[in-house]
TrEMBL record:
Source taxon at top rank: Bacteria
Record lineage: Bacteria, Pseudomonadati, Pseudomonadota, Gammaproteobacteria, Oceanospirillales
Region annotation (Disordered) ranges: 91-116
Species name: Salinicola socius
Protein name stated in the entry: Molecular chaperone DnaJ
Basic and acidic residues compositional bias, start-end: 91-109
InterPro entries in the record: HSP_DnaJ_Cys-rich_dom_sf
Length: 116
């Protein structure tokens, strides 16, 4: 008889990897790469072992979907701001100020190169 999967998947309890402190990256003196303890995820189970793929994939998918939702919400907020009176003009003015500052920096750099 085949094992049946639970109807509702429950995310396992995790901790930050003690080796990489949750970054998922090993940094040595001469090289760097994915952490060997947590398989590059930054997370380990309660027992300190890497998470099994069966648990890891749904967790990463949920995280990806959560981040995608946050990005979409930020884009929608930005679109709404653009319809607020005066915002487009303020953005254009700020863009012009940034261009002017860049031109001034370029001119100062050219003068420095010429020795003036």
């Amino acid at each position: 008889m085949a094992k049946s999967k639970p109807l509702h998947w429950q995310e396992p309890t995790t901790e930050n990897c003690p080796q990489c402190n949750g970054s998922g990256e090993f940094r040595g003196m001469f090289s760097s790469g994915p952490c060997a303890v947590c398989d590059g995820t930054g997370l380990v189970g309660e027992n300190g072992e890497p998470l099994p793929v069966e648990d890891l994939l749904p967790m990463l998918r949920r995280q990806r979907d959560r981040i995608a939702g946050q990005i979409e919400a930020a884009r929608q907020h930005y679109r709404q701001l653009l319809h607020t009176p005066g915002v487009r003009e303020a953005l254009a003015a700020e863009h012009e100020r940034q261009q002017e500052r860049q031109r001034e920096k370029d001119m100062a750099f050219r003068k420095k190169l010429r020795g003036v």
